[in-house]
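Fill-in record for AAA family ATPase.
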Amino acid sequence: MTPLRGRERELDLITSAMESAHRGDGRLLAVTGGLGSGKTALLRRLPALAERRGLRTLTAGCAPQEQDFPFGVVGQLLAPFPGCGPLDLVPGPDRSAELLSFVTDHSADQPLLLLVDDLQWADPDSLHWLGELAKRLPGRRVTVVVSVREGEPGADAPEVQACVERATRLVHLAPLAAEAVAELVAHHLGHPGEPGQITACHEASGGNPLFLTAALTALTPAGPAAGHAPAPPGTPLVALHERLTVALRSQPAPVRRLARALAVLDQEPGEETDLELVGRLAELDTAGSEEAVCSLRRLGLLADGHGPRFAHPAVREAAEESMTSAEHEDIHLRAARLLHNGGHPAERAAAQLLAVTTCHDGWTVEVLQSAATAARRRGALREASRYLRHALLGSSPSGTDRAALLLDLSASERDLDPQAGLRHLCQAFLLLPTTTGRALAAARTPPFLLGSCPPPVIDTVAKVAAELGDPDALTGAERQAALRLEARLRHVAVAGPGEMGECAARLRALGETPPMGTAAERELVTVLLHGATVTQRMTAAEVAHQADRVLQHEPAAPGHVHTALPHLCGVLAAAESLDAIGPWLTIARERARRDGAPVPQAVIAAELAHVLLARGRLQEARAHADEALAHGIMEWATLSAMTALVMVAVQSRDTKLARRLLGNRRETADHDYRPSPLQLLRGSVAATGGDPATALEYVLDWGRSAERAEWRNPALVPWRTWAAGLHHRLGQPRRAHDLADEEYERAVAWGTPVAIGRVQRVRGAITEGEQGLELLRESADLLQRSVNTMEAARTELLLGRRLLAAGRRAEAEDRLGRARDQAFACGVPWIAERACRELAGPAGSRQPVAVAALTRAERRVAGLAAHGVPNKHIAERLEVSSRAVEKHLTSAYRKLQVAGRSELAAFSALLPGPADA
């Protein structure tokens, strides 16, 4: 049982009246308060106090259903006495006086305490009797305590007010103070509550005991061990809801209407609602509205403040549920019209329309569209989509108005649910009647969405582009639309793979400096650069020059993910021109995070993974791949994004990531003739699992698909290099050399150090003797000048091993040291561990694994410390604080499981020294 807290003053007043009864000084006390203020709980606590003071307690509770029962309340009070029960009290001319004498006589033997709860519902005869009793209390040994719920219609009845006015003392139950709330929280939890818990409960309840009981259910009690029996889930909330529903139902019609109107309009917790607007919705004049508000406030259902606001969310719920379905529809629709006509924000009116099942009037669609536009501007894409979906209910089944809604909805959904956006986009295309309309719709469609459309939709777009004609013959908006359509159709490659080869020629036709003044021009150049890169119809230098120009003209914004610009990432990575793209993507990522839209964040994370992988920074690339997966990219991944994630999994040899990609991705690629990166992933899993034959089949299958699709550039996916290595493992040297030689010719034609150095490493690996060593040295020299640290580390590791086998230990240790340091720097632990093992030999086989766990900064600090450099000099050398040095050393000691510098010296051969740091 919940203790009575915060009512000590009220209890003192009543007990003082009880003590006066002993002296023959009878008194009437009236306890008043709103719903849930604790009147009944207070009265229930009085019999125990009366018994300790020698008073006999007589109780009665009033109910609305018993108001027509004469002397019903008096019968309850006097029921303990023979012949005075409710069924015995038949009205008569002298009955009231007889009963008054009866009470007076019995009080002479023992003082009496009469308790009457909810006096506002007492029958008239009982009220009259109580009034007469109040007149006779002076000189009698009787204390009478009645409670009245303020705000109830019956509380203002003349008979009730006459009785209350005769009270010696009016006891009003105010909201509980914070100290009382703290005590009740402690009782509920079994220990003192946290300040935040107490504040939250006090604010949620406003000090009202009824609302406080509901708020306490959100706290975790201490359990039976603290003396609490577990209650059925939600019991206090159910009881609260029932009491509020009954209380509202008993109110006059104007009060009920105002409560419902307030429930509809009071949508923002903590904000006051305009009383004039609420009154208009409730169809009340100013006086009627103020009177209804006064009743609700006295009842305790409104919080204190200038404007009307519910005291608890449960009051709003009870008011809403008191309406029938028809009333619910009508009031929300009228509220929306009032807000719309009154010049309120469109989103506020639209929120009302969302509660209406049909929106057939033209103004409703207009409001919802305006609200969607406002929501998009503030970055609330989910709300914008909700408004537009609801607007579709009021649009015609077929027509341009529905098509416009579908296009707006698709634009809102593309950052949240691209698959839903695709469905609505396809529906819109079929409804647009004019060439211009379809052209503008297709021009604003993200290429990756258009690429996933059914063939009839793509055919429609191709037809629209043909009707528009040559972009060079157009001007203004039509030219921009035609350029965008050309970019999208080349992205989709509707004519099959043969169209890819035309990209380089089309790009050259635009001149040495293709125009890039508009977004449409930049999109087209990007698609053409991608086609020229894939087919290798241009050199890396030519591609890099034009791609960097695009970045110079294009603002770094999250919206680029809905254009063809994500292809730039792959183009620049293949061309090894990565200085500008990294910072550009970083700016776009920060803006995407600020907007909070998952699709741009996922795509940009995949782009960054691609760029970092091209730099050989595998650990960072893996982190960005995880970020893309966390944003749900697997549900709609484009071919370029999927390829980036697959390459991270392949290069990191992460079978867990590989299986995750295989288990959540659709089997079909965006275009049937394009090679699926999943084949490469399956090959990587097979190779890691020790099945080179199966791995080779997967890689060759991907290669055949790539050739059919004119994907010839080894800088994108070096499948021939991988296949050559697998052939060599399977004892098929001729096939290995043929593939490697073909790859070498293409790499030289492309002209980037990574592409050439990578294939030279494979050629050196499959070539015996001094010739193989020379090929590996050539690979190492090329890759040392490249942007890809990981590829350089792989070559150094292989060359170091071959040199060790050839007995050239000095050069081998130099190469292996480089491999170790480069692998540590770029976050490729398996290369670092192998290099460390080769350097340390069998006796130090456990040390390299521990060293591989160090971060780059920890390795540099630990290396200097292991070679005897003092902390102060390390801080000066690395330009960091002494505290940072201590922090890195502490972390390194923990990872290496050493006690200090003396034990750290054992790792000096595996860590960079003063010459390397």
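KEY FINDING: Residues 215 and 578 are 57 Å apart (CA to CA).
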